[in-house]
Amino acid sequence: MTQAARRRAELGRAARGGGGRVAAVPLVSVGGAHRRAGLGRAARAARVGGRVGGARRRAGLGRAARVGGRGAAAPPVSGGRARRRAGLVLTARVAIVGGARRRAGLVLAALAASVGVGVDVAAAAPGDAPVGRVVFARDRSLWLTDPLGKRPPVEVATLPAAASEVRAIRSDAAGTRLLVDVAGRWYWAPVPDAGAGPVTPSALPCGPGPARLAARGDLVLCATPAGSARLVRLGDGKLFDRPAPAAAASVVERGGVRELVWDGGPAGVLAAPLSRPGDTRVVAPTAPLRGLLAAPDGSRGVGVYRAQVKKPASPGERDELVGFALDGTAARRRLIRDGVVLDWSWDSRWLLVQDGAKACIARAVGGQFKCWKGYTAVSLAPDGSWALVVGPRAGAAEAEAAGRAGADAGGADGERAEDEDEVEDGDADGQDGQPRSAAPVDIAVPLPHGPFSLYRARLAGPYTERPALVETVVDGAALWLPAAPPPAPGSAPAP
C-alpha cells in the first residue's frame, strides 16, 4: 500500500470512529504552509477536489468529511499568488480521531489593500501622486509650491503683516482667487500668472467672523460688524447684506441656482436663492446647536446636535457632530463625535475635521474616516484625497514621537464611526503639549503654538500612513489649490 493510500485510510477510520461526522472546515494550502504549521498527518492526507499543488483546492476534507452525510465541502480556495495577495485572514481547523477538534494554529494574515471597509477609502484617490498646488505663509509672503515640496517655492503675494498672523487661506473651486485671514482681517487676491510676480491682497469690508469664497470666485460671504451675513461682489465691490448669522451661513449652488443656506433658529435650517432672498424654504426642520456648514452643492449639511447616549453604562445626553441631507427631512448620521468641521471638499463628498489633537478626513455619507494624531488640519484637496496638516518642526525630537503616534484613526480605517462602541475622545492639547487657545470668531480651530512644518496626509490605503513633509519652515496657514489650468499657447507654464 502506498503512503498516500495509508493516509487516506487512516483519515477514513478516524471519521468513522468519531460517529461518522467530520466537520468540513476552511483549510488554506499555500505551497506546503499547512505542513510547516503542524497540521498533522490527517490534514496532509485530505484529498480536496484534486491533487495537492493544483491550481484550485477545496477547503473541506473531501470524501472523508462526507462519511456521516453532513460534512459539506467548503468553497474552493485558490492556492496561487492571487489568493495570497487578496489577503483573506483564515483560521485552519482540523478534525481528528474521536471527533475531537483541535485548532491547527495556522492564521495566515495577509492584510488586504481592499477588503470590505477599505474600498471606499482607497477609491478616493485614483493615483498615488498628489495633484494640485500648495500655498503657504512664511516670513511676510504667501508662497506657491507643489504638493511634494520638490519645486523651489515661488512668491505669489506680499502680506500686510507677518506670516505668523495668517490664520486661514481659502480659494474658489478653480483656484483662481485667494482669501486670506490676517490677524482677523480678511483680504483677497488673484492667483498671479506664472512669472507675473507677487500681488498685493486687497482688504475686504468685512467685520469679525468667518469668510468663504463662492465656488465661482466672484463672491465672498463674510460678516457685517454686527455679525450678520454679507455678500461682497469682487467685480465691483457691491455689498449685499442678509438677515442671517454669518457664522452659520453658506453659499451653495444647487442645479445651477446659487443659494444662501443658514441657521434660522426655531424655524430650522433655511435656504433662499441669492437673486430672490424672499423665497425662503426649510431644508432641515431642526437647526444644529452650532457649527452649521453646508456642502458646496447644497446636498448636505453638518452641525452639532444634542444626542441621546445609547450606552447603558453612561446614559444621558451629549453633543455630537452629525451630517444630514438638506432635503427637508434631516435624517442624521453621526460623524466623528467631538470633531470640528473646518471645510468641505469641492466635490461635496469629504470633510476636513479636527478632533482634539487629531487631524481627520471624514466621508460625509458612510462614516469612513482617517485621522493623524499630533497634527492640526489646515486644508483639504478638492477631491478629498489629501489633506494639508501642520505638525512639529521637521527634524525636532518631537517630530519622531508625533510620527509614531500618527497612525491613529480612532477606529479601523474606513469604518463607520456610528458603529463604534465609543469614538475615542480627542484631547485639547496642541503639538507642544500646551492647551490650545480658544478659537477666535473668524476660524474654527486655531493653529498650534511653537514652530511647525507643513505635511500632506494621504486618505487612500488600508493603513493610516505618517504624513509626508511638504515644507520644513512654515509660519502660518496653508491651502491646497487645484491644478493650474493648461497655459495658453505661447505662454510660460504655471508654477
Terminus-to-terminus distance: 78 Å
Spatial strand sequence of the major β-sheet? 7-6-5-32
Proportion of residues in β-strands:
35-45%
* Structural class based on helices, strands and sheet pairing: mainly beta
What do these coordinates show?
By secondary structure, this protein is mainly β. Helix content is 9%, strand content 36%. The strands form nine sheets. The chain has a four-stranded antiparallel β-sheet, with no helix packed on it. It has a four-stranded antiparallel β-sheet with strand order 8-9-10-11, with no helix packed on it. A hairpin with a 6-residue loop joins strand 22 and strand 23. About 31% of the residues have low confidence.
Please specify the SSE layout and strand pairing.
Elements: H1 3-17, H2 33-36, H3 40-44, E1 56-58, E2 76-78, H4 81-86, E3 89-95, E4 101-109, H5 118-123, E5 133-138, E6 141-145, E7 154-158, E8 166-171, E9 177-182, E10 185-190, E11 202-203, E12 212-213, E13 219-223, E14 228-233, E15 239-245, E16 249-254, E17 257-263, E18 269-273, E19 281-284, E20 290-294, E21 300-309, E22 316-325, E23 332-334, E24 340-344, E25 350-355, E26 358-363, E27 369-373, E28 376-380, E29 386-392, H6 397-404, E30 452-458, E31 468-474, E32 478-481
Antiparallel strand pairs: 1-2, 3-4, 5-6, 5-32, 6-7, 8-9, 9-10, 10-11, 12-13, 13-14, 14-15, 16-17, 17-18, 18-19, 20-21, 21-22, 22-23, 24-25, 25-26, 26-27, 28-29, 29-30, 30-31
